[in-house]
């Protein structure tokens, strides 16, 4: 069966970039953020349950989830957040499994931003790969990409698992503090390692 590498990292650490570098090497990639977007888009499979739980206010006219309204709804309401995750996580897991089942190759990469925080996803993967970057790099990149204020990025980082905890839990780490050429070399090295380790686990 296809072995799955769970790719994770804090906000702006470089998960999507690393996933793209694996894809460039021919490794199939499933990104749970993409899956979540599909499930909460117009006619998405999560929409009926979300509207039943939170009301019409969280559905836009086009049928997609109103992300801003949903964020406001769960902000400072842990019970509502738990309900949201209780609806979304099993659907994301099922759809990710469905997509992974269609893939072939020695292994695939599953991108899960909160991998260590969500045991159901952790149970899905053979091994974990962390993209780790210095916090000032994370902030700089997210600010450049999104225009968020540095303090807003810090607030998101504060809600995620601490960097040291992620590093303790990860089976392997890619450090993304420097240029993209260096990142590509690290991904190539991990690719060789996974080909050897995951394709022939008995050797
Ligand atoms: P998020 O958690 O917000 O989804 P992410 O972990 O997927 O982010 P990316 O989107 O890959 O992170 O990277 C964040 C931003 O930083 C992107 O604009 C990306 O192009 C840029 N970036 C990532 N790595 C590097 C690098 N080594 N050098 C320069 N820019 C980089």
UniProtKB/TrEMBL annotation:
GO molecular-function term, one example from the UniProt record? dephospho-CoA kinase activity
Q: Where does the signal sequence lie?
A: none
Chief subcellular site?
cytoplasm
Q: Which InterPro entries does this chain map to?
A: Depp_CoAkinase (IPR001977), P-loop_NTPase (IPR027417)
Give the domain of life: Bacteria
Q: Which reaction does it catalyse?
A: 3'-dephospho-CoA + ATP = ADP + CoA + H(+)
Q: Binding of ATP: at which residues?
A: 12-17
Cell inner membrane as a keyword of this entry, yes or no, is no
Pathway in which this enzyme or protein is active = Cofactor biosynthesis; coenzyme A biosynthesis; CoA from (R)-pantothenate: step 5/5
Q: Which GO terms describe its cellular component?
A: cytoplasm
Which compartment or compartments is the protein found in? Cytoplasm
> Per the UniProt entry, what is one GO biological process?
coenzyme A biosynthetic process
Q: Where are the transmembrane segments?
A: none
What keyword terms does UniProt attach to this protein?
Answer: ATP-binding, Coenzyme A biosynthesis, Cytoplasm, Kinase, Nucleotide-binding, Transferase
EC number(s) stated in the UniProt entry for this protein: 2.7.1.24
General function of this protein: Catalyzes the phosphorylation of the 3'-hydroxyl group of dephosphocoenzyme A to form coenzyme A.
Per the record, the similarity remark reads: Belongs to the CoaE family.
Among NCBIfam families, the record links this protein to:
dephospho-CoA kinase
**Name by which UniProt lists this protein:** Dephospho-CoA kinase
What species does this protein belong to? Crenobacter luteus
| Recorded name of the encoding gene | coaE
